C-alpha cells in the first residue's frame, strides 16, 4: 500500500498568530505532525507533503528528510477555501512528481500536537481491516445538549441521563482523515463507506484558541510518575498517605502506584483512592512494571534503599526521588527528601532536610488554629494509621486514670483504619473517652484540641501547623531520631514509647494542664513555623523544577 500524508499549514491565523510555527514545548508546532507522519515510513511506503503559503513553514518543513513542501497558489490560500481542494491539489502534484498513484491519502493537521504516532498506525490497520472508503479521527463527548429550532431553544435528547449512559456522540478531531485515493476529489474526501476511529481525549486537542494551546502544552509537559510505596502494620501507613497527598497535587500527570504483596493495608487504602495500582511480589516483577510503564519519574517512599535497587530504577527512569532514605542507594537519587531528619549537615548535596520540606495535607492549611484556652478541656490522642507499637492501647488506660482527677476533660482518640485493636479500644462516654476510627478530616479534631499526645512521625508537623502543644512518644528507635519533636518547636518528648512508664506520662500531661503559660509558649513556637510552601518545594523537587 502506497500512502500519501498531506499536512496543510497556512501561515495566517487570526486567533493565534503564526500558530503553525510558534514554539510549543521547545519545538515549532508543525514538527509534531511531521514526526508522526515520518514514523509511518518505518511500516508503510509513505510520502509526506506539506501544503503551505508561508516561507517560514517551508523553511522548517524542508529541513525534515523525506518531506516535500508544496507552495500553494494564492487562490488556495484564501480564508474561505476548505481543505478538500487543498488536499486534492497536493495529491495531484505529488502523483505527478513521484510518477505514481497512491492507495491511501491521509490528512494530518499541524494543529494536533498531542496525537501519538502509535494511534495513527492502529487507525491505518483498522482502516485496512474494515475496507473503508473514509476514516475520521473522533473523540466521544457525551453531554446533554440543546439546539435552536425555529427560533426556540429545544433539548437535543429524549431523556436526562448520566453522561456514561448517554449514546455516543462523536466529534471530529484534527488528528487525521484517511481516504482511499478513488474518493478524493477537489470537492470531497468522504466516500460511501465511512468509519470513525475513537482516540483518547488527551490526543484529541486541535489547537484553534489560546485555551487549546494551554491544554496542549499541559498534556505535552505531563510526566509518567511511578510511586513505589509500602503500607504495613510494622512500617505504618505514613508512606502511603504521603504519596497519596502528593498524587492529589499532581493532577494532569500520569500516575501509577506500585506496592508489594505484603502491604495488605496499603493495598486496601490505594484501592479506595482509585489511582492505578500494581502489586509486585519480587524485584523481577517490579522490573517488568518499570519496563512496561517506562516512567519519567520514580518516587520511592520505602525508607532505605541499596545501590542495586537504585541502579535498577535509574535504568528505566530519568529522575528518581526518595523519601527518608538513609541507605547506601540514597547517593544515587536525584533528590532525597528527609523532612523528619536534620543530620545530613550538607554532606550530600542531593539531600533536602527539615520541616521546610514537609508535604502537609491541604486540610491543615484550610483549618485555622483555634484560640488559645487557659483551661484544657479537650485532649487528643493520635498515633497514626497503624500504630504498630500500640501506644493507643497504652494511653487508653492512662487516660482513664487521668479522668479520675480531671472528670471534666474530654479525651478524643483518633485511630487509623489499620489499627488492630479497634474492637477493644472503644468509646466510654461515662469517662469522657471518645474513640473516632478512620476519620476523614483529622484537622477538625485538632482544631478542637487544647493538648495532644502523639507519636514522633508526620503528625507532629500537623499538630504544629494547628498550634496544638503535644507530648510525644516514638513508635520505634528510627522514629526517635526525628529531631523536630523537641521543646524548641513546642513539644515535650518522652522518648521511645515502650520505655515510658505510665506515671511519667500522667505527671507530664497533668503538669501541662496545670501550666497554661508553658502551653502558650509551646503553641507560639509551633505557629512560628511556616508549612504552607512545603508542598510546593516537594513537588518542585519531584518534577525537577527546584534545586
In terms of DSSP E residues, the strand content is 15-25%
> What integer is the average pLDDT?
93
Extended strand count: 24
* Helix count from the secondary structure assignment: 16
CATH homologous superfamily descriptor of the largest domain: Spore Coat Polysaccharide Biosynthesis Protein SpsA, Chain A
Secondary-structure content class: alpha/beta
Number of domains: 3
CATH third-level topology of the largest domain: Spore Coat Polysaccharide Biosynthesis Protein SpsA, Chain A
User: Which term fits the overall shape?
Assistant: elongated
Summarize the main sheet: 7 strands, mixed
The CATH architecture assignment of the largest domain turns out to be Alpha-Beta Complex
List segments where confidence is low: pLDDT < 50 over at least 5 consecutive residues: none
- Gyration radius, rounded: 31 Å
Helix content: 25-40%
Distance between the termini: 52 Å
Record the strand order, biggest sheet: 5-4-1-6-10-7-11
- What is the CATH class name of the largest domain? Alpha Beta
Tell me briefly what this model is.
The protein has 547 residues and is an alpha/beta fold. Helices cover 31% and strands 23% of the residues.
Amino acid at each position: 500500500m502506497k500512502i500519501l500524508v498531506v499536512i496543510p499549514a497556512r501561515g495566517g491565523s487570526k486567533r493565534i498568530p503564526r500558530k503553525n510555527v510558534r514554539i510549543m514545548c521547545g519545538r515549532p508546532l508543525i514538527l509534531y505532525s511531521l514526526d508522526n507522519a515520518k514514523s509511518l515510513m518505518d511500516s508503510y511506503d509513505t510520502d509526506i507533503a506539506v501544503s503551505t503559503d508561508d516561507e517560514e513553514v517551508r523553511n522548517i518543513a524542508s529541513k525534515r528528510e523525506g518531506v516535500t513542501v508544496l507552495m500553494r497558489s494564492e487562490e488556495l490560500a484564501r480564508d474561505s477555501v476548505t481543505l478538500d481542494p487543498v488536499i486534492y491539489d497536493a495529491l495531484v502534484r505529488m502523483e505527478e512528481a513521484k510518477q505514481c498513484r497512491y492507495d491511501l491519502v491521509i490528512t494530518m493537521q499541524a494543529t494536533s500536537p498531542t496525537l501519538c504516532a502509535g494511534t495513527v498506525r492502529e487507525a491505518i490497520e483498522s482502516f485496512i481491516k474494515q475496507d473503508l472508503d473514509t476514516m475520521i479521527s473522533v473523540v466521544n463527548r457525551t453531554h446533554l445538549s440543546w439546539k435552536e429550532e425555529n427560533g426556540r431553544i429545544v433539548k437535543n435528547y429524549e431523556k436526562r441521563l448520566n453522561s456514561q449512559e448517554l449514546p455516543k456522540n462523536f466529534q471530529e478531531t484534527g488528528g487525521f482523515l484517511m481516504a482511499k485515493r478513488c474518493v478524493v476529489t477537489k470537492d470531497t474526501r468522504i466516500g460511501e463507506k465511512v468509519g470513525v476511529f475513537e482516540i483518547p481525549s488527551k490526543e484529541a486537542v486541535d489547537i484553534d484558541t489560546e485555551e487549546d494551546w494551554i491544554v496542549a502544552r499541559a498534556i505535552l509537559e505531563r510526566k509518567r510518575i511511578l510511586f513505589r510505596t509500602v503500607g504495613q502494620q510494622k512500617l505504618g501507613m505514613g508512606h502511603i498517605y504521603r504519596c497519596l497527598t502528593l498524587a492529589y497535587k499532581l493532577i494532569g500527570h500520569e500516575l501509577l502506584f506500585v506496592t508489594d504483596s505484603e502491604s495488605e493495608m496499603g493495598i486496601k487504602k490505594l484501592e479506595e483512592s482509585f489511582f492505578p495500582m500494581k502489586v509486585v511480589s519480587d524485584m523481577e516483577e517490579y522490573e517488568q512494571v518499570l519496563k512496561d510503564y517506562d516512567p519519567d519519574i520514580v518516587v520511592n517512599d520505602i525508607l532505605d534503599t541499596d545501590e542495586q535497587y537504585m541502579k535498577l530504577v535509574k535504568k528505566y527512569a530519568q529522575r528518581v526521588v526518595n523519601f527518608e532514605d538513609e541507605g547506601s542507594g540514597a547517593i544515587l537519587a536525584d533528590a532525597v527528601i528527609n523532612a523528619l531528619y536534620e543530620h545530613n549537615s550538607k554532606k550530600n548535596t542531593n539531600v533536602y532536610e527539615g520541616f521546610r520540606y514537609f508535604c502537609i495535607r491541604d486540610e491543615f492549611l484550610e483549618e485555622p488554629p483555634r484560640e488559645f484556652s487557659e483551661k484544657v478541656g479537650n485532649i487528643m490522642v493520635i498515633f497514626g494509621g497503624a500504630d504498630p507499637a500500640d501506644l493507643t492501647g497504652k494511653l487508653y488506660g492512662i487516660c482513664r486514670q487521668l479522668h479520675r482527677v480531671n472528670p471534666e476533660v474530654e479525651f478524643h482518640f483518633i485511630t487509623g483504619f489499620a489499627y488492630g485493636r479497634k474492637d477493644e479500644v472503644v468509646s466510654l462516654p461515662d469517662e469522657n473517652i471518645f474513640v473516632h476510627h478512620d476519620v476523614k478530616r483529622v484537622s477538625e479534631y485538632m482544631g478542637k484540641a487544647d493538648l495532644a499526645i502523639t507519636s514522633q512521625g508526620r503528625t507532629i508537623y500537623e499538630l504544629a501547623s494547628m498550634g496544638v502543644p503535644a507530648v510525644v512518644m516514638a513508635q520505634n528507635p528510627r522514629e526517635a531520631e526525628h529531631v523536630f519533636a523537641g521543646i524548641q518547636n513546642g513539644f515535650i518528648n518522652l522518648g521511645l514509647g515502650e520505655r515510658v512508664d505510665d506515671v511519667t506520662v500522667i505527671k507530664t500531661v497533668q503538669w501541662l494542664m496545670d501550666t497554661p503559660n508553658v502551653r502558650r509558649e509551646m503553641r507560639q513556637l509551633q505557629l512560628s513555623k511556616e508549612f504552607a510552601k512545603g508542598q510546593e518545594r516537594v513537588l518542585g523537587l519531584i518534577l525537577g523544577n527546584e534545586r
